[in-house]
Specification:
Blueprint (H helix, E strand, L loop, with lengths): L6 H12 L3 E7 L3 E7 L6 E8 L5 H16 L1 E8 L9 H17 L2 E6 L3 H11 L4 H30 L1
Parallel strand pairs: 1-4, 4-5
Antiparallel strand pairs: 1-2, 2-3
């Protein structure tokens, strides 16, 4: 028997949707940051761009670009991929991501949610293969597609939570 969501759960989910809020998804790496954005109803995630981190001031320039994306899309929240190890431990990449989260929160004033990103790049590669993107072209799309996978997983979990509480 299907569980009917409580009135409170239905109202909470509906209120969130009525805001027409967008969420930015990020796949943070040492050389690039993949960026995705949700639709206004927070149902789907679309890959947006890959920010190259090549310069000496790469953190400052990366944060500035993310701020401009937040402003352009009027985002109210950020979902940041959290690279836990497969055995659920926290490694160097996860620690760097935690620091980046603090920098993002301080710079943007927005809530930044760490979201488990294990196997997101593998899934992004599979999606690109399934859609016929040639191997030599995949590298330019994989980071923003991984960001979309991370954000979509978050959106799906929120929709499911709002319908089952």
């Amino acid at each position: 028997m299907k569980k009917i969501p409580s009135k409170k759960a239905r109202i909470t989910w509906r209120e969130e949707q009525d805001k027409n809020m967008r969420i930015i998804g990020l796949d943070y790496g040492t050389k690039t940051v993949g960026v995705a954005v949700s639709d206004a109803l927070m149902i789907t995630a679309q890959p947006l761009e890959t920010i190259e981190r090549k310069s000496a001031n790469k953190l400052r320039q990366t944060l500035a670009r993310i701020e401009s994306i937040i402003e352009e899309y009027q985002a109210e929240r950020i979902v940041l991929g959290y690279p836990k190890n497969m055995n659920n431990t926290i490694g160097e990449r996860a620690e760097a991501t935690e620091q980046f989260k603090e920098d993002l929160e301080r710079r943007t004033g927005l809530e930044v949610i760490l979201w488990d990103e294990r196997l997101s790049t593998v899934e992004a590669e599979r999606i690109l293969m399934d859609t016929g993107v040639r191997r030599e072209n995949r590298k330019q799309y994989v980071d923003k597609m991984a960001a979309a996978v991370i954000l979509q997983n978050y959106l799906d979990s929120q929709a499911h939570e709002g319908q089952t509480e």
